[in-house]
Structure prediction request, 649 residues.
Amino acid sequence: MNVTEKQLTPDLFRPAEQGTEKSDEITKPSISFWQDALRRLRKNRGAMIALFAIIFIIAFSFIAPLFSKYGIDDQELMRSNLPPKIQGLEKIEFLGVNGVDIRGTNPYELKNVPKDQYFWFGTDGLGRDQWVRVWKGTQISLYIAFLAAAIDIIVGVTYGGISAFYGGRTDDLMQRLVEVLYGIPNLVVIILFIIILDPGILSITLAICITGWIGMSRIVRAQVLKLKHQEFVLASKTLGAPNGRLITKHLLPNTLAAIIVSATFTIPGAIFFESFLSFIGLGIQPPTASLGSLISDGFKSLRIFPHLALYPAAVMCILMISFNLIGDGLRDALDPKMRR
Amino acid sequence: MLRYITKRVFAMLLTLLIIATITFFLMKLLPGSPFKNQDKLTEAQKYALNEKYGLNDPVPVQYINYLGKLAQGDLGLTFQFNGRTVNSMIVNGMGPSATIGVEALIFGTLVGLIFGIAAALKHNTFIDYGAMIIAVFGIAIPSFVFAGLLQYYVGVKLQWLPVAFWNGPEYHIMPAFSLSVFVIATIARFMRTEMLEILGTDYILMARAKGASRMSVIIKHSVRNSLIPIVTILGPMAINLITGALVIENIFAIPGIGEQFVKAIQVNDYPMIMGTTLFYSFLIVVIILIVDILYGIIDPRIRVAGGKS
Prediction:
């Protein structure tokens, strides 16, 4: 006790500052909603890994085909059904990329393929380089992903926004149309397009354009309806803000979180839709390939040449899981209700 | 409530009418005639055939007749087999399709509930993380990839189960399981979120405080209340099962509607494509309607929102 008394000299103390202004002062710099969300997203390990996986796949799908001197449809029956072989890694037995197929034979030697010729993912039944085909197929999946997200944001947000903002008769009319469109299954729309046009990327694109945005428009409409009558919008209106300013300054920023989350969840759905159609033969037609059609072709010879199905299936799974994980991460980061 | 139901039924009928109309006019737009050997027919024979099938009538009359037949559930004749109706093809394919669909739904729901409840009760333990990792994989991995790999490893390599076809109970296991993965994942995630929310409420604390056993609180209070919102995901899930079955049936060579449908598209059997399309639309629209009405009964707030906004 004595020691502490000696150490605590009066000059160590000063009176506490009083007054309401002082106690209201915030000492730490305030962070905005978006900074907060970004911080939360960064902490989500799964989402960050997924983000890097997607960046990697996007970069690879454009760069990787350049590593091969073959195009997507360069056929050569002399080198058909070669198992994968990668320089450097071929010495390591268990990786299975040494150019030996599952029966233990080495078709590279049997078919007199030049020694310096490597097919990293092997070749298919027509001797086409599977490496090029897988990454070109990934490009199609990514195109579909981009398209679905763009349609979602452009059409869905505009439609839902207009419907909710103007309300009344406009809203009634627009919602009746949505109700009817919502009832028509995706599959039906695509089949109608296949019958008029032909199976292919165009039919899928049109089908996504027609039905893809409905979910988003409903979400945006609900959000805008909720925000429209809140005090801050009313205040802005009273101060004479024009509609354009209300929409861009107040309604859109407050809906943005829901839009981003919804758009990220549309992407894996659209990728699945395309690959599903290609898998049952209604999607991308040969000679072009998509991941779905590659997997479908690969399954036909899964017993003898497993590499044909396994590589595109692996890319497909990584892509789907990554987009789902990012969607989950963004939802947890942006949805205040999910905060723990 | 009655007003809400009538309104929804009208919207449903309108949707179906639009689908049927588009279908009809597309069929009219297609080139060619439905009679295979038309080159060998004389003009009189062609006329007689057209007369028999009502193709000489003006298009509006044909359209009315078509709608009339459709209202009675008559989908016309298939091109693939002489004289067989689309209806009989669909009825034939319905058995296997419905069987694996229902099996997948029951199995998936049960396992999903168990996963979800376990994850919520053991929140932030490795059981929770494990269940949620399985759930993310189950939602993300396309059913056809999963089914194909399952077929290869369990059917071909290990030879535990028959690879394909439809000859008995053991043939159901792999297709139903691959179809149920999505159901398991969706229900598990949903159930976990609901349970966590409910476990944190005051009435659970109250029930524990008054001395109710842990087991009875979990079953009587938490699980029961978390089951209610599950109705909302039943609709999307049923649609997913229907489209999922399309691929699964093709992979496992099950003679269901999905398999016939894909075959019909490959051989351009238009009446069959159209009939099945209409059948699928009908199924999906009715499922959405039933789910919405069910939810309206369970949660009155939906009705109000549905009526006003």
